[in-house]
Each structure stands twice: as C-alpha cells, then as structure tokens.
Amino acid sequence: MTSPSATKALEHLEGHFEEHLSDLKALVAVPSVAFAGFPPAELRRSAEEVARVLRSRGLEEVRLLEIEGAPPYVFAEWVEAPGKPTLLLYAHHDVQPAGDEKRWKSKPFEAEVREGRLFGRGSADDKAGVVVHSAAIGSWLQAAGRLPLNVKLLIEGEEEVGSEHLAELLRRHRDLLQADAIVITDTANFDTGLPSITTALRGLVTAEVEVRALESSVHSGMWGGPIPDPAMALCRMLATLVHPDGSIAVPGIQEKVRALTEEEKKSFASLPAGEAEYRKQAGMLEGTEMLGGGRNPYETNWRQPSISINAIQASSRKDARNIVCDAAWARVGIRLVPDLDAKQTLEALAEHLKRHAPWGVKVELKTDIGGGWWYTDPGQPLFQAAGRALTAGFGREPLLVGCGGSIGFVDPITRELGGIPALLLGVEDPYSNPHSENESLSVGDFRSAIRSEILLFEELASALAR
Ligand SMILES: [Zn+2]
Questions:
Q1: Ligand 1 centre from 458 Cα, in Å?
Q2: Which of 183, 195, 296, 397 places its Cα 20 to 30 Å from the Cα of 382?
Q3: Average pLDDT, the chain
Q4: Confidence class of residue 1 from pLDDT cuts 50, 70 and 90?
C-alpha cells in the first residue's frame, strides 16, 4: 500500500522531473575520466558537482571523502528518522574515456536527448545512478518534509579503474557508512522498460602458462620430427581443459557448482529470451554451435563456470616462418560461480595443466585472483519489498537476473560492512552502450527508476524494521 506521503512524493517528481534531468546533464558535462593520463582535476570538479546536486536536494553533511592516491568519493546523509533502518545508497561519478570522438553523433560531454534517450558519456554508467538517488530523496523531502527511513550516500570516484581504495575507505569510515542494507544503482536491466534485480555475479581467476622445450627456436626442416614442439604441447594441454559440450574438464571445478534453487529455476524458465536472442546479442556466426549441454544460455552464462583462452602466443602471425618455436604461451581465464574457491580453482588448473604436459616439456605458471563470485539469496524479505517497488515504479514485474561478468566492488562493500544485504538495481538497458561510443540512457527508464526508489524507501522501511 502506497502511503499518502509516498503518493505526494511521486506527484512531486512528476512536476519536477525536468530538474532532475538537468542535474544529470550537468554531471555529464564534467569529463570525469578516471583513467591514467586524464586530468585528475576533472574528477575533483565532478565530485564537487555531485556534492552541489546532493545539497540542492536536501541532503546533509555533504562532503568529499579523501584517501591518498584516490579520486574523491562523495558522502552525504539524511538520518533524521530515529529507530528506522538505514540504507547505504551507492553509485559512481567517474566514467570511461570517450573513445573515438568521431563516432559520437553528439558531443560525449554535452548531454543531448534524441528519440527518448539521453546521450553522453556517463549518462547511464553511472551518473544516472547518482541522480536516481538524489531525485528520490529530493522528492520525499520536498513533498513530505522527511524520508521514511535513514539514508547515507557513497558516490565513488574510481569504479572504472577497479575501486582500488574502496575497501580501505570502508574500513576507515566504517561507522560513518554503517547501514542495514545497500542499494547499488549500477547494473543493467534485461530490456528497456523491464526492471531487473541482479542477484549473482561471477568471479574471475587467470593463469599465464608458458611451455618450453628448446634453448632457442630452430629450423623446422633441419631439426623437426624428433624434437618436441612447445606450441603443439601447449595446444594438447589446453585442449584437455573442456569437454566437447564446453563444460570444464579440470577435476575439482564442475562438481563444486552449487545447484540452482527452485526460485532460480523458476526465474530462468520465465526469462523472456533464449537461444535466438543470445546468439544475436553475442554476434555468433551462422552455423556455430551453442554450448552448455542444452541449458538456457543465460543460465550457462550466469550460473556455470566458464574457461576461456584470452591470448595465445608462439612466434607471431607477422613473423611466421619455418621453425619449431622454443616456447609457447597462453593466458587462461576462469569465471567463478558459487561454491568455487578462487585459490583452489587455480591450484586445480595448475595441477591439471602440468599433468597433461606431454614429452617432458617445461611448464611454468603465473596465476592471479581477480575476485570472487558474489551471490545473494533472493528469498530474503528485502527482495519481495524491492519487487513491489519496482513493479509499481515500472508498471512491470521485475526479473531476477545474474551477470556473467564481475563487479569488483560488490563483494568488498558487503563484506566490510558486516555482510549486509545488497540490492543491485539497473538503469542501463541493452542499448545503453556503456564504455563505448554513443552511450545513452532511456529517459523513460530513468523516470521509472526514480519512481521505484521513492517507493523502495517506504517498502524497505518496513521490510528492514528491527
Ligand atoms: Zn558503472
């Protein structure tokens, strides 16, 4: 049931939506590129602009949180609802570089609305996330003079370069940032107008493997035949990593995958897309086979581990000549799902590769843990509450989705704050083109996301009540 105050907040939004769109345009106008070689002063200017927007919408204690070597984070709060739960709202204000400016139809740092979409770098990823929070809070404070719960905002400035200082910042400011749940507005919806809650992210580990057999490359005619070929040896080793259906053949990995819950099975069955859409979106060539043993490809991508050969090298295409190479090298990546342990997975991979090395070749490995998987049980009351808010805000029931990729900051945020639950909500859609040219945001979905968050505050005020 929507209370009279929430109804007033929604009405207020309808009358003032353009102001929030202007806030977003003002944020897009600052080229806050977090990459090395771009001016750090713009990240500071961006943080100050975010602070200005938050202040103008009634947030309090607005300030930059500084940590040496990191672009400024922005903090703000409204905590005048004693006894009510506290939400930590997350978004990030840094962006990717514009890419090839000639391929942009309008200037990357001058937001422009065309055919219902707002174009500009950061319009979707993730300056829209910042303004969804400020607009929802502003609508409540303007219309009702209060919020139904307490909110704290953390707007990051280094997400696009791996959130390097985030865990440290959370440790230093743990009391300031402590909350009962976190709302992260930085993921994608399954389709335009179709709200989606992300409940699973895959983790990532990588290994570089080098195979050597000779002191130096030799003439393939003079010496070839009796001597072991390191490139051939590496290919034979890599070929043992998967079964013909694409599943991982390294012992100790596939058998640790957590079974789907009934809830998950239902949500995969109800996805409004399958093999045809997946083929098209991935750009698979005609005649190529879909792997995954007959599973829904989204299930394979979100809830199964996968192994990829990211790069492979022995001599080079440019230098190809009649030799037996002295060495061959490859980088192998494994995406992790529950309950795979990053370290054990790498150990299993290393052991398997060494065991399958033929002809006594020398094998050396260098491994790296990118990050663990993240998974949350959507059976928690928090998700039913969010489901009601999104259904009312978008006019459509939300989907529970996973993500085949990894978002590095989700695990540290939830862990540093004592394992609090996280809601990952989207403003992007499949046409947003984040990180690429002509990034854009559906203005309709932006409005629906703000409406949903207005309602979410009220829903979570009761769902999280102690
Ligand atoms: Zn983002």
A1: 26
A2: 296
A3: 95
A4: low
My answer on whether 335 and 389 are in the same domain is no
User: What is the whole-number distance in angstroms between the Cα of residue 159 and the centre of ligand 1?
Assistant: 7
Burial pattern 70-103, b for ≥16 Cβ within 10 A else e, equals: bbbbbbbbbeebeebbbbbbbbbbbbbbbbeeee
pLDDT digits (tens, 9 = 90+) for 274-327: 899 899 888 899 999 999 999 999 999 999 999 999 999 999 999 999 999 999
Output the CA 160–ligand 1 centroid distance in Å.
7
* pTM for the model: 0.88
- The two tokens of residue 89 are 């709202």
Q: How far is the CA of 164 from the centre of ligand 1 (A)?
A: 14
CA of 350 to the centre of ligand 1 (A): 33
Residues 89-105 pLDDT 10s: 999 999 999 999 999 99
Q: What is the pLDDT of residues 424-452, one digit of tens each?
A: 999 999 899 998 999 999 999 999 999 99
Lowest mean pLDDT of 28-37, 123-132, 270-279, name the range: 270-279
Q: Which domain holds residue 429?
A: 4-200+373-463
Kindly report the CATH number assigned to the domain that includes residue 347.
3.30.70.360
Q: Which residue, 334, 360, 338, 337, is CA-closest to 347? A: 334
- Same domain, yes or no: 195 and 320: no
Report the separation in Å between the CA atom of 224 and the middle of ligand 1, taken as the mean of its atom positions: 52
Which distant-in-sequence residues (6+ apart) come within 8 Å of 334 by Cβ?
Answer: 204, 205, 206, 248, 253, 305, 306, 307, 308, 345, 346, 349
Are residue 94 and residue 241 in the same domain, yes or no? no
Rounded to the nearest whole angstrom, what is the distance from the C-alpha of residue 98 to the centroid of ligand 1? Answer: 14
Alpha carbon of 188 to ligand 1 centroid (Å): 9
The CA 315 to ligand 1 mean position distance, Å, reads: 38
Count how many domains the chain has. 2
Give me ligand 1 centre to Cα 436, in Å: 13
